[in-house]
Amino acid sequence: MTDPKVLTGLLPEGWDRMTFAPFRDGVEICHLWQGGPDVALLRYAAGASVPRHRHTGLETILVLSGSQSDEAGTYPAGSVVFNPEGSEHSVWSVDGCTVLIQWERPVAFVG
């Protein structure tokens, strides 16, 4: 039997104490759970972006601070975004943000 993993004190900004590693230019990642589905925190610096990609499984995002944008709009803190399998977009943050992200399978970069 696998024991559950519990994170306490994540809100309201306890993620600032977490250890992040480089992910993409201007974007850092803190893996919370790996092995499918994966869960992580992503921290975007102001002006950072992730190029266009296709989702190969459901991705769920909860914006914890700042705002994240894609071609469909801008999502402020408290927004939940569901990107279903087969959807495509690029992502950026004008002023920076931190998001909690869960994905079933890795994305495929298309741009």
Provide the low-confidence segments as ranges. none
Shape descriptor reads globular
- The tally of strands reads 10
The chain-level mean pLDDT equals 94
Query: What percent strand?
Result: over 45%
**Largest sheet: number of strands, sense, barrel closure:** 7 strands, antiparallel
- Percent of residues in helical segments? under 10%
> In angstroms, what separates the terminal alpha carbons?
41 Å
Q: How would you name the CATH homologous superfamily?
A: Jelly Rolls
Oligomerization state of this entry?
single chain
- Structural domain count: 1
Helix-strand pattern: EEEEEEEEEE
CATH topology: Jelly Rolls
Q: What's the tally of helices?
A: 0
In CATH, the architecture is Sandwich
The CATH C-level class name:
Mainly Beta
Radius of gyration: 14 Å
Given the helix and strand composition, which structural class is it? mainly beta
Give the topology, please:
Elements: E1 21-24, E2 27-33, E3 38-44, E4 49-54, E5 59-70, E6 73-76, E7 80-83, E8 88-92, E9 97-103, E10 108-109
Descriptive keywords:
mainly beta; Jelly Rolls; 10 strands; globular
Characterise this structure.
By secondary structure, the protein is mainly beta. It has a single domain (20-109), classed as Sandwich (Jelly Rolls), CATH 2.60.120.10. It is 0% helix and 52% strand. The protein contains no helices and ten strands. The chain has strands spanning 21-24, 27-33, 38-44, 49-54, 59-70, 73-76, 80-83, 88-92, 97-103, 108-109. 18% of the residues are buried.
Briefly say what this structure is.
The chain has 111 residues and is an all-beta fold. The protein has strands at 21-24, 27-33, 38-44, 49-54, 59-70, 73-76, 80-83, 88-92, 97-103, 108-109.
